[in-house]
Design goal:
Arc Repressor Mutant, subunit A; Chorismate lyase; 2 domains
Amino acid sequence: MGLSAEEVSTEVLPAYIRIKKHLKHGLSAGRWAPGDRMPSESELMASFEVSRMTVNRALRELQAEGILERVQGIGTFAAHPHLRSSTLTIRDIREEVLSRGHSYRIQIVFVLRERATIHIANRLGLAEGDPVFHSLVIHYDDELPLQLEDRYVSPLAVPHYIDVDFAIKTPTEYLLSVAPTWEAEYTIEAAMPSQLEASLLKLEPCDSCLILTRWTRSRDIPVTWVRLVYPGAHFKFSGQFQP
């Protein structure tokens, strides 16, 4: 029996597109629910008889479309509908505040050397228990708490992070100067702050926040994982598009 027109058209598509169509169809059919683990790269390589590079391209493009989430060392997951992915420009928040003609200051809650939990170790290419730098700072716009920055940094990538005076140079400004970002993955969602976050941002526990989590690499080396919490009533993301 010959192939149907649909099967023939699928067969002539590039392999990475066939993988994308297969995964999209499974997601739309409910085979994988939001948050479910997707087939691994090895499984897709075997099923489609293609190289890892081809599979990686398909997954990378689905991630860019906001359809999949990929976590280094853990796996690939079906994205939740509220998560979106797009091109991200990493800009120092002090620069943003000053560009609006407002006054800026930073409050340093702590800068510590800790032992990495499994959660942080997986994101920074470390082993559980390895040393990791952990900083918690609050950025102010005209004396109003604008952003709580909870950041972990790999000592392998940035060995002097703990010695920096962040009253002079913000964590973002310093990291961009010593480990320029080559690759970043991030999510943005609306959620309630933790009890500590609400206290530091002078919020009620029921106040909604915008929360951005971001993981970056420089020259294929994991650099930092950061959770940025913005009071929902005081902040909005904005940008400009020009074709």
